[in-house]
Write a structure and sequence with these properties.
With about 180 residues, this protein is α+β, with helices and mostly antiparallel strands. The chain has five helices and seven strands.
């Protein structure tokens, strides 16, 4: 597929029979291998929901995974805990974006942004059914760290590559008074 061509992408749940996972390749071998070899098993075992971004229903431009998670309040800066008025529970419910990857074939086309915004919208939507106080991500490298921080993610204490975004912030970003 041509890199400069404009695509109309669609997010849908990963289906190993429908989506061509063998053609997917990204900068991190572990993320490529996960989609090719592990994603279907995680779906079957109910440990991750996997969503793909596709221009044609078969090609995978990128993917992300969502899982339930729990955050220890000690990992969140105390001032922010106070501002968010979160309860003093031993663990707070959260949503984990365990993996997020863009195909090398779709570089510089805003795919990472589309994937992240979809993951955040999906997390917000599901938080109305299954409580979640934040979205948590693990940055693979400094570039990923900067990418997430551009969207307002904050570093968690004692975990240099782990970041979070309060659900309240996500809700404010997607809330439209006319809705």
């Amino acid at each position: 597929m041509a890199q400069n061509q404009a695509y109309k992408f669609k997010i849908e749940p990963f289906d190993k029979k429908k989506h061509d996972r063998t053609a997917f390749s990204c900068e991190h071998d572990a993320l490529t291998t996960y989609l090719r070899q592990q994603a279907s098993q995680d779906i079957a075992k109910h440990v991750a929901a996997v969503f793909v971004l596709t221009p044609d229903g078969r090609t995978i431009a990128g993917y992300y995974t969502l899982s339930q998670y729990a955050v220890e309040p000690s990992q969140i800066p105390p001032q922010l805990l106070h501002e968010l008025r979160l309860p003093k529970y031993p663990r707070l419910p959260a949503t984990l974006v365990g993996r997020l990857a863009r195909s090398l074939e779709f570089r510089n086309q805003g795919v990472g942004r589309q994937l992240l915004l979809s993951a955040l919208q999906q997390s917000l939507s599901m938080s109305r059914t299954i409580a979640s106080a934040a979205v948590v991500v693990d940055a693979k490298d400094d570039r990923a760290m900067m990418f997430y921080q551009e969207y307002g993610f904050l570093r968690m204490l004692d975990s240099p590559n782990r970041l979070f975004l309060p659900m309240r912030t996500i809700q404010q970003a997607f809330y439209h008074p006319s809705d």
